[in-house]
Target: glycine--tRNA ligase
Amino acid sequence: MKKESDLMQKIVSFSKRRGFIFQSSEIYGGFGSCYDFGPLGVEMKNNIKREWWNEMVRSREDIFGLDSSILMSPKVWEASGHLTAGFADELVECNKCKKRFRKDLLEEDRCPECGGELSEPRKFNLMMKTFVGPVEEDASTTYLRAETCQGIYVNFKNVLQTMRAKLPFGIAQIGKAFRNEITPKDFIFRTREFEQMEMQWFCDSKDADKFFDYWLDQRLNWYYGLGISKKNLKIYEVPKGELAHYARKAVDILYNFPFGWKEVEGVHNRGDWDLSNHSKHSGEDLKYEGFYPYVIETSVGADRSLLAFIAEAYQEVEGGRGEKSVKEVETVLRMDKRLSPVKIAVLPLVKNKEDLVKKARQVFDLLKRDFNVQYDESGAIGRRYRRQDEIGTPFCITIDFDTLNDDTVTVRDRDTMKQERVAVDSLTKYINLI
Ligand code: ATP
Model:
């Protein structure tokens, strides 16, 4: 147990030290479990989102993209069931210190903070309320969306018609969601503001089971393809009695986080709950050829999956990896090249030789349009390699004295540490091929 929490501690401090993740409003002491993605974190999160989008939208003819607004009519949330008890956590309150806790996450019957007696559980809604317009009154109350998919359902007809779609088809979107979580925990695992990547697959009810299995499979393969090992992923079917208000079936994809097996993605059969309720509440007919399609949903947090990808990739090597022996522990982020925040580091062998620096700058300019490239000339070359290994940069390109004669550079691979001599004019091709 100690070891696991150590690893999480390391990941948290590494994430800050190397510019991946900062606490929100840090100079004011932080704010309510919100986090900011630093220069490397935003690159990595964008890479995750791009991989998801490529897989779920661009590589398919039957899934369409969408970017709906965060603020919607409050009627959406009445229809979806989020404003009623449906979207609520069961909370217990400590009679002594008055703190509230989620009942399902408590391990004991007494308050985990002060040992006090706990109240009977009560429902607490997770929607974040806000006001639209100049007056803070009931008529102007709405909510920050708690899931991105409602924007998809209310646009079902728009997409169906404008894309001339035929069942089965899907609509996908990536965007922020907000939940007033009572026990936000485990760094960016559970936060109050997060980003979801959701796809809603509309199909005939008789095909729902088949597509459920298909999408579960597709989603598992997405993780495997991006370097998550099979041993660190498993599925868990949510028992009938614990299903969310909209779900007919739910399977969680669990990742083996340093703090235990936890959900990273949910695959749900939402039946016709959403389309039929929006039809009823809006008066708009959302049937397709006379029936309400069923919805199979795949829903993953961009931030939560980023934590899984970092946890999977984070490795410490005692005494270094032998390139030049070092005393300290060396960190390597062995992540899929497509997710690495920096793709290439361009390194002149030494910084005080004008020709070398000029050439390195040229190589940097050549590559920067196609890749995220970092230029670094400070410190010994081995130290610079290690700095790049630590943030998962797959390629280090070194410009040395031979470069000035034959226009070739060395390309060093992060994982094998092998170096290959490559001509400058074929660098883009070379890197794209690997
Ligand atoms: P939990 O039981 O952990 O509260 P949930 O079952 O309510 O989660 P869903 O509504 O299925 O979660 O959300 C789909 C996905 O959105 C989750 O698998 C997760 O990746 C992400 N997600 C949900 N809530 C949060 C949160 N508070 N912080 C970060 N990501 C979240």
Observations:
- Residues 147, 179, 181, 190-191, 194, 196, 263-266, 299-301, 303-304 surround adenosine-5'-triphosphate (CB under 6 Å).
- Residues 319 and 328 are 6 Å apart (CA to CA).
- Residues 39-58 form the longest helix (20 residues).
